[in-house]
Design a protein that fits this description.
With about 210 residues, this protein is mainly beta. It is about 5% helix and about 60% strand. The protein has one helix and twelve strands, in the order αββββββββββββ. It has one helix at about 5-10, and strands at about 45-55, 60-70, 75-80, 85-95, 105-115, 120-130, 135-140, 145-155, 160-170, 170-185, 185-195, 200-210. Strands 1-2-3-4-5-6-7-8-9-10-11-12 form a twelve-stranded antiparallel β-barrel. The longest helix has 9 residues, at about 5-10.
Length: about 210
C-alpha cells in the first residue's frame, strides 16, 4: 500500500494542470459521502471519482468510477459504472449559490437515471458552511422518499472528517470517513459504515481531475 499511492501520484501529476493558479481552486469530490453537496465541477475539467468497496453481507468487493464534467457554471453532466455495466447517467443543476441567499445555503437539483434497474433518482441537495464545520442535507425519491444528513469538519488544510445518516422506508444507515487532499487536483479517502446495525462495509477511494 505504501508503494501504491506514490505510484498513483507519479502517474497523475503530469496530467494535472495548475488549477489553483488559474482560478480552478481545489478538487471538490462527492465521494465518499452518500450526500451530495450543492456544488458542481469547475467547467473545462473532467473529474474521475474511483472507489473500491467491500460489503460484509455479500463477502465481495466492487470497483466503481463516477465521471463528472460541467457544461456551464450551473449544469453538470455525470455517469457512473462498476465496469460490468453503465449504471447511471444524470445531471446536476445549481439552483442557488450560498452567497446569493440570506442564510448562506447552496442548493442544487440532481437527476440520475439507473440504467440497470430502470428507475429514476430525483434529489434536492442543500449545503451550509460554518466557521468550524459544514452540514449537508439531501432529500430525494427512488421509488420511495429518503433523507441524508451529514456533518463534517476540517481537521487541517488537507484533511476532513464526516459522519452522516441515511434513512428511507426500509433502511437506516450510518456512514463515516476521512478525506485527504495531498494535491489540489487529487483526493484520497477511507470510509465505512453500518446498515441497520447488522451489515458493515468499508472502502477506499481516489479522485482526480484533469483538463
Amino acid at each position: 500500500m505504501r508503494k501504491l499511492f506514490p505510484l498513483i501520484l507519479c502517474v497523475l501529476l503530469p496530467l494535472l494542470g495548475n488549477a489553483q493558479e488559474d482560478g480552478k481552486g481545489i478538487i471538490d469530490a462527492q465521494r465518499p459521502t452518500l450526500t451530495e453537496s450543492y456544488s458542481i465541477v469547475v467547467p473545462n475539467l473532467l473529474q474521475f471519482e474511483n472507489g473500491l468497496d467491500y460489503f460484509d453481507d455479500i463477502s465481495d468487493a466492487s470497483f466503481n468510477t463516477f465521471l463528472r464534467g460541467s457544461v456551464t457554471k450551473r449544469i453538470e453532466l455525470r455517469a457512473s459504472t462498476d465496469y460490468k455495466a453503465l449504471n447511471t447517467v444524470g445531471a446536476k443543476f445549481v439552483v442557488m449559490n450560498p452567497d446569493k441567499t440570506a442564510f448562506g445555503i447552496g442548493t442544487s437539483f440532481i437527476y440520475n437515471r439507473d440504467l440497470v434497474n430502470n428507475v429514476n433518482d430525483f434529489r434536492l441537495a442543500m449545503s451550509r458552511s460554518f466557521e468550524k464545520f459544514f452540514i449537508t442535507y439531501n432529500i430525494g425519491h427512488i421509488e420511495n422518499f429518503y433523507n441524508i444528513f451529514l456533518v463534517g469538519t476540517a481537521i487541517s488544510d488537507q484533511f476532513n472528517y464526516f459522519i452522516e445518516y441515511y434513512n428511507d422506508k426500509f433502511l437506516n444507515r450510518v456512514h463515516t470517513g476521512l478525506t485527504w487532499i495531498p494535491h489540489r487536483d487529487i483526493q484520497l479517502d477511507i470510509n465505512g459504515g453500518w446498515m441497520d446495525s447488522e451489515t458493515w462495509y468499508a472502502g477506499l477511494g481516489v479522485s482526480f481531475r484533469i483538463r
